[in-house]
Amino acid sequence: MTALSASLSAPPRVSVPSVAFALAKREFTRFVRQPARLAGSIGQPLLFWLVLGSGLSPSFRPTGMAAMSYTEYFYPGMLLMMVLFASVFSTITVIEDRDQGFLQGVLVAPVSRLAIVLGKVGGAAAIALFQSIVLLCAAPVLGFSTGPLGYLLILVTLTLLSLGFTGLGFLTAWGMASTSGFHAVMMLVLMPLWFLSGALFPVQGVPAVLEGLMMINPVTHGMTILRAPFYEAPGALLSDGSYLGSLAVVALWVVLALGASAWRVGRRERGAPTP
């Protein structure tokens, strides 16, 4: 009788998809109400692309790429940078929500911890993907002849990358006490990952030690699968063992980032309140 009474008095548990969608929608709504945030996150990669592309094009002559300008080479790297910065600025809301008391209210509600992770990460990934699509619209103007299936493959890749970066950002933000500390840590981690991804210079021809670091970097494999659809047909890529290997590395990175985030949210600190 006691168990029956307890079950009747317990609040109903909301489904994971509905909670995740509500949190993701909240993240995206907050983003569209801050136009300065959109301008800043798009403007920085665009400035990098224009300045570096114009300055380095005359001296960019890697083996097998003599006919390619640095502006063209750096364009996929700029898209990757867009995803990186958008992810950083989006997952920082985890700390803001904690400071404002919203996160504590969600944690005491009868919702799955996985739903919290999926909602926050999904909303941040949607923001990063939206901003990347804005810059992707410039591809035809630059002369890329990628077809509809190629663009679809690029969007899938951008989605995977945004989930990986936002999962990593969420995992870091959950344990941070201040936004300034989070930003410093993320720049310390993410910028080297981006620099050593092949976004700025090709992997081929670099010193052996540097090449080894680049090959164990999951973002390098993300850069590989992001750049490939601009130059090769999707059918050929999906039968290419090298491409599929890089895709598997990125997918594993996303799964590990999301899994670690879900574990971190469900873990209660011994002797300390849940953040």
Q: Which labels suit this protein?
A:
275 residues, mainly alpha, globular, disordered N terminus
Give an overview in words.
With 275 residues, the chain is mostly helical. It contains 13 helices and no strands. α2 crosses α7, α3 runs antiparallel to α4 and α4 packs antiparallel against α7. The longest helix is centred in the middle third of the chain and has 27 residues. The relative contact order is 0.12. The N terminus and C terminus are likely disordered.
List the topology elements.
Elements: H1 2-9, H2 16-32, H3 35-56, H4 70-91, H5 93-99, H6 102-108, H7 113-136, H8 148-174, H9 179-195, H10 208-215, H11 218-227, H12 234-237, H13 241-266
Helix pairs in contact: 2-7, 3-4, 4-7, 4-8, 4-9, 7-8, 7-13, 8-11, 8-13, 11-13
Short description, anyone?
The protein is built from 13 helices and no strands. It has helices at residues 2-9, 16-32, 35-56, 70-91, 93-99, 102-108, 113-136, 148-174, 179-195, 208-215, 218-227, 234-237, 241-266.
> N-to-C SSE series?
HHHHHHHHHHHHH
Proportion of strand residues: under 5%
Q: Structural class, from secondary structure content?
A: mainly alpha
Roughly what percent helix? over 70%
Summed over residues and divided by their number, the pLDDT gives a mean of 79
Shape: globular
The major pleated sheet works out as: none
**Tally of DSSP helical segments:** 13
| Unreliable stretches covering 5 or more consecutive residues | 1-10, 269-275
Number of strands: 0
Radius of gyration: 21 Å
Termini separation (Å)?
35 Å
